[in-house]
Known about the structure:
By secondary structure, the protein is an all-alpha fold. The protein has helices at residues 8-13, 22-58.
Amino acid sequence: NSIEILPVSYVRSCSFQQRLSYTTLSDLALRLIDGTHLNLYNQRQNLHCEHQGLSRGTDDG
């Protein structure tokens, strides 16, 4: 199952308007935040591992 993201201009030009419930909007917002948090955590872990690798390489002094 794939979700197609439509441009805002397309959504605004539709002849109908759908209102989403507060619960649905809240669920979408929480999933977006969770996804962003996970991406930031993964990036931090990658940077930390790279830094450790570089530190190990220069400790031979």
